[in-house]
Each structure stands twice: as structure tokens, then as C-alpha cells.
Design goal:
Number of helices: 10
Distance between the termini: 109 Å
Order of helices and strands: HEHHEEHHHEEHHHH
Strand content: 5-15%
Radius of gyration: 31 Å
Number of strands: 5
Shape: elongated
Largest sheet: 3 strands, antiparallel
Length: 277
């Protein structure tokens, strides 16, 4: 929970707010200063306590939140009960290392995988970068070369691959994690990169490492990445089998051709021996 927050002074004058009813405007203002949301502009939002604070019925609050979601002012995961203010990072900046660690920790606690990805993407566009030139922190997914990777083989039979441009950053951020968790972070990172929706890969990697350290890392993209690798392995095995069958078939055909050539001679020899007898 927060004790203070930045609220845009012209919030209710935004074009997206023009059609909002008074109760919906009240809900929006309350969200920007809500104690239920953390420094990442997200959190579990309890309908009944919040409705009581606003003097609204739970149904009215729930309906108002739906309207705000339709207006693209918030995003919401009804299964986890979490809410994210979509414009949060336009007004909340994290310029110091300490504030970025606080942000990473807050993002790591998000239960909804979908909301977490949205928050990572939104936050990445406003986090400071070390240089203005192309670097891991300014590389987009489209720039990342997923075919050029460093392979890491670690203890316990675990191994993983990381694009070369992110290898040093990955090892620095995950050096305190055990081999299995390192592999989990790597697969989740690669899986999300393949989605093509990651604007700031280094920000994503930092958030995944933080989530792994506090035990909240989700592996939705990692599972898909592992299934993709398993399928590739199966396809390669099938290709190898097909190639072997092709080679064996060619060898068999050559043997048959050879037999066809020598068979008449063998038959003739057999006939001559019979006549001599």
C-alpha cells in the first residue's frame, strides 16, 4: 500500500473521460490515489471495502470499473481481482536504482500473467536507459537475434540458451539463483521475446529475475518455449529417421540392381554344371 501518489491535474479533462458519469469519475479519481494499488499502479482491488469507502454499492463500483476498462483507462483481471492504471507510468518515473528495485518487486507480485506482461511493457517505455545508442536496454524484440545464442550447461543436468546480446546481463541479474531457476528465467525470457510484444527486453529480464528471487515467477511462456523445443527435437529426429530410411533404401536398391546384374551369370553357370553332370 502507498501513503501518497501523483494524480494528473487534468485527468477528468482527458478525451477518454468525457462520457464518464459522476460516479465513474469518482471511481477513477479514487483509483489514482488508492491505498490498494502499489508503486506499479496495480494491486488487488477489494470491491466491497472500496465501495463502502466511496459510498457506492458493490454492483455500482463493479459496473463503473467495467466502464473504465472499456474506456482504456484501466485494465482488469477479474479472476485475480487485480487492477492496473494504464497511464500510470506517464506520471510515475523510477530514475534511481532503489526505486527500480521497488518497481521490480511490485511487478513480481502481480498474480495475473496477462496484467504482468502489460505492466512490464508499459514500464519499459519510461524507465531510463544507460545510453541512447543500441544496447540491451534499448533493443526491441524485433532487433533481438534469437538465432544467435550462448548455450549454458549448468549443474544438475540443467541447460539453457540466451541470445548473445543479453548473456552478460542475464548472468549478472541471475547470479544468485540456482541452476534450475536460472533455466526457468531463461525459458520465460525467450518465450516472451518470441511473442514479439516486448519493447524493453532488459526491463523484462530484470523483472523476471526479481520475480524468481521472491518466488512469484510464472512460467506460461516458458512452458510454450519448452514445448516448441521438444517439438523441434521430434521433427529433427523424424528427419534423421527419414534420412536413414532413404539411405538404407538406396543401399537396398543398389543391392537389388547388383543382384539383377549377376543373377543371369549365376544362372548360366548353374546350367552348364548340370549339363556336364
Amino acid at each position: 500500500m502507498r501513503e501518497s501518489s501523483l494524480v494528473p491535474t487534468n485527468l477528468l479533462d482527458w478525451p477518454r473521460c468525457e462520457s464518464l458519469l459522476p460516479d465513474q469519475r469518482l471511481i477513477l479519481l479514487s483509483l489514482w490515489s488508492s491505498r490498494y494499488l502499489n508503486c506499479a499502479g496495480t494491486g488487488m482491488y477489494p470491491i466491497r471495502p472500496a465501495a463502502s469507502s466511496l459510498g457506492l454499492s458493490p454492483d455500482a463500483l463493479d459496473g463503473g470499473l467495467n466502464t473504465l476498462e472499456t474506456a482504456k483507462l484501466i485494465d482488469r483481471d477479474k479472476e485475480t481481482g487485480e487492477i492496473f492504471i494504464l497511464d500510470w507510468f506517464r506520471f510515475h518515473h523510477f530514475k534511481t536504482e532503489m526505486s527500480q528495485k521497488m518497481l521490480d518487486a511490485a511487478i513480481g507480485k502481480i498474480a495475473s500473467a496477462r496484467l504482468k506482461n502489460i505492466v512490464i511493457e508499459k514500464s519499459g517505455g519510461y524507465l531510463p536507459t544507460t545510453t541512447s545508442s543500441a544496447s540491451p536496454s534499448s533493443t526491441t524484440t524485433d532487433d533481438a537475434d534469437l538465432t544467435s545464442s550462448n548455450e549454458f550447461v549448468v549443474g544438475g543436468g540443467n541447460s539453457f540458451s540466451i541470445p548473445k546480446e543479453f548473456s552478460d546481463t542475464f548472468l549478472r541479474m541471475t547470479k544468485d539463483l540456482n541452476a534450475k531457476v536460472q533455466a526457468d528465467v531463461a525459458d520465460e525470457f525467450i518465450g516472451q521475446l518470441r511473442s514479439g510484444k516486448v519493447r524493453k527486453p532488459e526491463a523484462l529480464l530484470r523483472t523476471l529475475a526479481a520475480a524468481a528471487k521472491n518466488g512469484t515467477l510464472t512460467l506460461d511462456a516458458a512452458r510454450e518455449e519448452r514445448q516448441r523445443r521438444e517439438m523441434e527435437s521430434r521433427v529433427e529426429a523424424l528427419r534423421a529417421d527419414a534420412k536413414k530410411i532413404e539411405i538404407d533404401g538406396e543401399a537396398a536398391k543398389a543391392g537389388i540392381d547388383l543382384l539383377a546384374k549377376i543373377a543371369p551369370g549365376l544362372a548360366a553357370k548353374a546350367g552348364s554344371h548340370g549339363s556336364e553332370a
